[in-house]
Amino acid sequence: MSCLLFKWTLFSSSSLAWLGPMNEGSLLDQNGKPVAWLQGSGPSGTLKPLKPLKPLKPLKPLKPLKPLKPLKPLKPLAPLGGYSTLNWQQWLNA
């Protein structure tokens, strides 16, 4: 089982149940009695702590949006001054 440390309070990572606080390197039960302690520190208890609120579970990520359909290309604009009066053959022979 793993736990989640949030603001010096330990919660079960699977059920989010409150396990107890942490005080001066000691992991305490819900009555303030030491259960375990970090290397380099000794067991240190406290008075019975107040039960904190249950932490919120993270929200699930949103599904990505579907890509939009591409727009149809625009018709080219007529050239400034209009088109030539010459056809292809007339233009080649000019």
Describe this structure in words.
The mean pLDDT is 86. It is built from 1 helix and 5 strands. The radius of gyration is 36 Å and the shape is rod-shaped. The longest helix is centred in the C-terminal third of the chain and has 6 residues. 4% of the residues are buried. It has 94 residues and is mainly beta. The chain has a domain of 49 residues. A 5-stranded antiparallel sheet has the order 1-2-3-4-5, with no helix packed on it.
Please supply descriptive tags for the structure shown above:
five-stranded antiparallel sheet; mainly beta; 1 helix; 6% helix; 94 residues
Strand-helix topology:
Elements: E1 3-6, E2 9-12, E3 18-23, E4 26-28, E5 34-37, H1 88-93
Antiparallel strand pairs: 1-2, 2-3, 3-4, 4-5
Organism: Shewanella mangrovisoli
Pfam family, one: Bflower
Keywords: Signal
